[in-house]
């Protein structure tokens, strides 16, 4: 496709503001404020906030924090459901259509880079939808031998993907191994890189938040302490009483899996809190690694702004210029 054709297509593509970055960087507050200034509505790009009843551990935006701004893809699935990228794409596209029909500007906000990339570039994952014997075999291996065995295999098969996938994220490990098997050896990281070369499906202004690493880690630790004070342990106890286990995708999220293991007697609650903080810091590092691979991104160094007003003014100016508002 020629550059001229790309420019023509982008001129007719729907507008989209993306605010991404690692956990605990203040994406929620900034997006709500900007949506208020620009008549926007917000679509969550968070793989945990979709689940009903999982509020504290997912740092779900509260009604007070929404400040009247419409939000989509929050509380749209039960914790027993297997939410995935294909469903996210479908529902996010529908949300964008509805937002634009209402004459508002869509904002995509969150830290799940895989979801953001899939929507922005229209990546086709439908060929992976059907259950396969390969997937069943890998799931059985994970149950009997543990995720570490599969992760070690992924390190050999697709080391690039392994760098961005947590060793305990069984679902994504299996998907990467299954993809390599079904595609005749093509790595999913290569597939994703090729897909990123496609023209974006949206005329996007794409922000990624960052800040001093030590400051970010301190904010993450403070957030985890606040979650525990707000009742994260009780939230996990309630979910456990409903029959949810470590086999449910929803319970594999950071915070939930560590406390669940503590409740099952694997280690004290103090150790669970330590692990949540450690794993959250590691997750933030992987998020930054993911977003550094994205093109046409505006990095926002939060430490370079004296206050929120100057940050919002800067971002609003870029949005208005980029989308010709």
What is the count of DSSP helices, taking H or I runs of 4+ residues?
A: 15
Overall number of strands? 6
Q: Which H/E pattern describes the elements?
A: HEHEHEHEHHHHHHEHHHHEH
Q: Between the first and last Cα atoms, what is the distance in angstroms?
A: 27 Å
Strand order of the largest sheet: 3-2-4-1-5-6
Structure in words:
By secondary structure, this protein is of the alpha/beta class. It contains 15 helices and 6 strands. It has a 6-stranded parallel sheet, with helices on both faces. Helix 2 packs across helix 15, helix 4 crosses helix 5 (113-120) and helix 6 (133-145) packs across helix 9. The chain starts with a helix and ends with a helix. The relative contact order is 0.16. The model is unreliable at 1-9 (pLDDT under 50).
Describe what is shown at a glance.
The protein is an alpha/beta fold. It is built from 15 helices and six strands.
Give the arrangement of secondary structure elements.
Elements: H1 3-12, E1 15-20, H2 27-37, E2 40-44, H3 63-66, E3 71-72, H4 85-101, E4 105-110, H5 113-120, H6 133-145, H7 147-157, H8 159-164, H9 170-182, H10 188-196, E5 203-210, H11 213-230, H12 232-241, H13 256-263, H14 269-292, E6 298-301, H15 308-323
Parallel strand pairs: 1-4, 1-5, 2-3, 2-4, 5-6
Features:
single chain, 325 residues, alpha/beta, six-stranded parallel beta sheet, 15 helices, 6 strands, globular, disordered N terminus
């Amino acid at each position: 496709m020629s550059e001229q054709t790309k420019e023509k297509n982008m001129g007719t593509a729907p507008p989209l503001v993306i605010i991404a970055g690692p956990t605990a960087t203040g994406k929620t507050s900034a997006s709500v404020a900007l949506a208020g200034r620009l008549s926007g509505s917000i679509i969550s790009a968070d793989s945990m906030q979709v689940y009903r009843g999982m509020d504290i551990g997912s740092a779900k935006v509260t009604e007070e924090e929404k400040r009247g701004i419409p939000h989509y893809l929050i509380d749209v699935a039960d914790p027993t459901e297997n939410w995935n990228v294909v469903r996210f794409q479908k529902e996010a596209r529908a949300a964008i259509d509805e937002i634009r029909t209402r004459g508002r500007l869509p904002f995509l906000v969150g830290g799940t880079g895989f979801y953001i990339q899939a929507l922005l570039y229209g990546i086709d994952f439908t060929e992976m939808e059907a259950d396969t014997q390969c997937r069943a075999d890998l799931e059985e291996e994970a149950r009997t031998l543990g995720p570490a065995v599969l992760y070690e295999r992924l390190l050999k098969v697709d080391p690039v993907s392994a760098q961005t996938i947590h060793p305990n994220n069984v679902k994504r490990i299996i998907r990467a191994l299954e993809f390599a098997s079904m595609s005749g050896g093509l790595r999913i990281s290569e597939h994703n890189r090729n897909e990123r070369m496609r023209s974006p499906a949206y005329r996007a202004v794409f922000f990624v938040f960052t800040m001093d690493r030590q400051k970010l880690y301190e904010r993450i630790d403070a957030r985890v302490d606040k979650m525990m004070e707000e009742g994260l342990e009780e939230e996990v106890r309630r979910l456990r009483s409903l029959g949810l286990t470590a086999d449910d995708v929803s319970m594999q999220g950071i915070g939930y899996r560590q406390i669940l293991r503590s409740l099952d007697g694997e280690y004290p609650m103090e150790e669970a809190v330590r692990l949540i903080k450690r794993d959250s810091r590691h997750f933030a590092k992987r998020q930054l690694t993911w977003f550094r691979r994205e093109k046409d991104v505006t990095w926002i160094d939060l430490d370079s702004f004296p206050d929120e007003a100057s940050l919002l003014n800067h971002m609003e100016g870029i949005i208005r210029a980029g989308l010709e508002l």
